[in-house]
Amino acid sequence: MNTFERLEANVRSYCRSFPDVFVRAKGAQLFSQTGGAFVDFFAGAGALNYGHNNDYIKGRLIQYLEEDGISHGLDMYTSAKEAFLQTFESLILAPRALDYKVQFCGPTGANAVEAALKLARKVKGRSGIFAFMGGFHGMSLGALSATSNLFHREAAGVALHDVTFMPFPCGGPGADFDTIRYIDSILEDDHSGVSKPAAIIVETIQAEGGLNFAPVEWLKQLRALCDKHDILLIVDDIQVGCGRVGPFFSFEPAEIVPDLVVLSKSISGFGLPMSLVLFRRELDAWRPGEHTGTFRGNQLAFVGAKAALEYREEVLLEAETLRKGAWVERFLQEEIAPLSDRIAIRGAGLLWGVDVSAAGPHELSKGIATRCYELGLVIERVGRHDNVLKIMPPLTISDAELETGCRILKQAVSESLEKLGALEPALV
Question: Which family does the entry's similarity section mention (predicted)?
Fold first, then answer.
């Protein structure tokens, strides 16, 4: 029994799929203790959009440390926080005409979700929240109440209150259901038995839910619905924001302005814990200290976040992400989709899914991911029954590394289908 199995709790998860001991990482590659090298299509579950040990960001962090900069500051005023706020305003908020205030929360995205839900309830004086089937918002009790996965919900050990789940427009039972019309009708019906919520929380792209993309028109209708019924719209951009699909915010293509936006994961630029809530200025109803957290003042995260935003501009990362994403789409459609007519491909930017739910039993996706790992590719499974292989490399991945990873994925899918006897005869 190794040290981890002997001392670490059974709750550990990713290490069961990627069992090597990793000692070094750079860019889009991970290196194990035994000398193995892996292309990383996982990117720290979305926390490493700028890659492992990005030199630009690392240099700023090292300089800050060498200058004995403040390392921990709670919510005190510091030069690192000021510099981040000024950069975030000038590079992200102002160009998009977003007049948001910024709240720094505890270190995880779940804490930012907690803060957003609390603030919405405080502002509107209502306890209810609407969320969507397939959504994932975190594991703490408040965030978990808005997370639909029954496996995670059952671990709470208590009833999870005050959230009503609605069908999402794709990826589940809501695909052929007019959710907007349904919500509108129950809010208009004085006998529906459903009270008006304080807020509706939504992921424009359900990443953990299986790469389910809300249509642009649907998002516009959702914004209009919230306006009509005096409901706050919260967009959870924790995993799919920070440029993952091209634009900094995932909701930009829909040309909507959420009332609140939740960010975490890659906002720090270097995998350092950081989360924040953006909200319309008039919603700032907090009293001092009503939502606190010891690590809401991670100064190194502020330094990394500022450097990441500057780096993003310098290397034209949005355009590069869209260019690489177009290449991935072509590869998946031309090289992997033809392996079986029961494979579905969907995605945008550098977030893509290979859905094998219709191509075989639930074990198929696990077999593919395991074979990928054997061949040198780290890739995650998501969605209902974990049937979707999620391609989520660092946005800085080189073209060669991207192609290597995709070709490993193709080989793994091909071999796994062949074992099932599911390949077309001409392709066997």
Answer: Belongs to the class-III pyridoxal-phosphate-dependent aminotransferase family.
